[in-house]
Amino acid sequence: MIDGTTIRYLIVGVVNTVIGYGLIVLLQYGAGLPPLAANAGGYLVGWAASYLLNRSYTFRSQRSHREGLPAYAAAAMACYALNAAVLHLALSWLKLPGALAQACGVAAYTVSFYLVNRYAIFKHRSC
């Protein structure tokens, strides 16, 4: 069964994904950046919004920014490394088109980052 926390995460995730993925595509195809650079730009913008929304709305965390923000940043970087690895594999080994490869990276990042946020960074509490 999906609980309230998961639903809130999905709502924030949809908003964040539309913004982040939209920016990735804009940077890659509109500005002509290489896929990995475009991907980084999209995630940098998304991280700030994601931290604030997930801390206050999704997980309703009371953890201080002083403790939570560095942990969040470290988790974001680790999940981004997974994203970059998936993107690289999708582009170079699977020879997927850029947009589809980006979507694979986004999926890997989203699932891993949810699990880390829920069970480590914001330490889920019952709704």
UniProtKB/TrEMBL annotation:
A Gene Ontology term for the protein's cellular component: plasma membrane
Stated name of the protein: GtrA-like protein
Membrane topology recorded in Swiss-Prot or TrEMBL: Multi-pass membrane protein
Record's keyword terms, sorted: Membrane, Transmembrane, Transmembrane helix
GtrA/DPMS transmembrane domain span: 8-122
Localization of this protein: Membrane
Transmembrane segments: 7-30, 36-57, 69-93, 99-116
Keyword Transmembrane helix: yes
Primary subcellular site in the record, as a coarse category: membrane
Family under the similarity heading: Belongs to the GtrA family.
